[in-house]
TrEMBL record:
Keywords: Cytoplasm, Gluconeogenesis, Glycolysis, Isomerase
GO biological process, one term: glyceraldehyde-3-phosphate biosynthetic process
SUPFAM superfamilies listed in its UniProt record: Triosephosphate isomerase (TIM) (SSF51351)
This protein's name: Triosephosphate isomerase
Record localization: Cytoplasm
HAMAP family reported for this sequence: TIM_B (MF_00147_B)
Source organism per UniProt: Flavobacterium muglaense
Pathway given in the UniProt record: Carbohydrate degradation; glycolysis; D-glyceraldehyde 3-phosphate from glycerone phosphate: step 1/1; Carbohydrate biosynthesis; gluconeogenesis
Subunit structure: Homodimer.
One GO cellular component term: cytosol
Family: Belongs to the triosephosphate isomerase family.
Chain sites annotated for binding substrate: N9, W10, K11, G173, S213, G234, G235
Residues the record marks as active site: H95 (electrophile), E167 (proton acceptor)
Length: 250
């Protein structure tokens, strides 16, 4: 069943104390009967405490990355088994910052997706075009290629563990949001692409989130579009009132 989801990507923000404060605020303010599945992704070092803190709540915890190998000499990296061992079952992969700053290719992301799925983790798979791609009207091709090269190696049975997050790079952290119409047009294309490759059931059941400068002021209109099933939120996830307002917009 297609779920409504609001996920907060905290990136490299919030130390241990600030993490606890924000989680306490979210626990107090997110309605227990919210229609949304709510996910937060603090930094690696605060994941274990976040899982413990959120144990009896309706808020789930995701990691922002995972290494593709099981274990080994990979200084500074974190494995899927390590994440699972502290109760983290969800991971964000393919984020544009990881693609651009840390040179993650579609092939590497595909590898990470495989590892996460082997560990029975849910993958929030991020993808989206750059401004130059949209200006040259190449955005549909770019998105289709990212899906094909980074994700479409998975088996049909794996789709119940996949959430898609369309994030146009030109809208991330820039204050510039895709219009609700632009978001709907691309989400419809993405669902169609999934349908062509995996069939109707999978296409209808996968949740497709929009990400890119979602704020309390624009969330409701974006979420009202039929193929937008929620949002992946960056900056606005760092303030409890803004994030809660976005959750409530669902
Ligand atoms: C993101 O980084 O995934 C994101 C959507 O950021 P922002 O909401 O700040 O644009």
């Amino acid at each position: 069943m297609r779920k409504k989801i609001v996920a907060g990507n905290w990136k490299m923000h919030k130390n241990a104390e600030q993490t606890e404060d924000l989680l306490n605020d979210l626990i107090a303010k997110i309605p227990t009967d919210t229609a949304a599945t709510v996910i937060v992704a603090p930094t690696f070092i605060n994941l274990a405490s976040a899982v413990e803190h959120l144990q009896f709540t309706n808020i789930e915890v995701a990691a922002q990355n995972v290494h593709q190998a099981e274990s080994g000499a990979f200084t500074g990296e974190i494995s899927a088994d390590m994440l699972k061992s502290v109760g983290v079952d969800i991971v964000i992969l393919g984020h544009s910052e990881r693609r651009a700053i840390f040179n993650e290719t579609d092939a590497l992301i595909a590898n990470k997706v495989g590892t996460a799925l082997e560990h029975d983790m849910t993958v929030i798979f991020c993808f989206g075009e750059e401004l130059k791609d949209r200006q040259s009207k190449n955005h549909f091709n770019i998105v289709e290629n990212q899906l094909r090269d980074g994700l479409f190696q998975i088996e049909a049975k794996d789709w119940e563990k996949v959430i898609l997050a369309y994030e146009p790079v030109w809208a991330i952290g820039t204050g510039e949001t895709a219009s609700p119409e632009q978001a709907q047009e691309m989400h419809e294309f993405i669902r169609e692409t999934v349908r062509k490759n995996y069939g109707n059931d999978i296409a209808e059941n996968v949740s497709i989130l929009y990400g890119g400068s979602v704020k309390p002021e624009n969330a409701k209109e974006i979420f009202s579009k039929p193929d937008v099933d929620g949002g992946l939120i960056g900056g606005a996830a760092l303030k409890a009132d803004d994030f809660v307002a976005i959750v409530n917009a669902i």
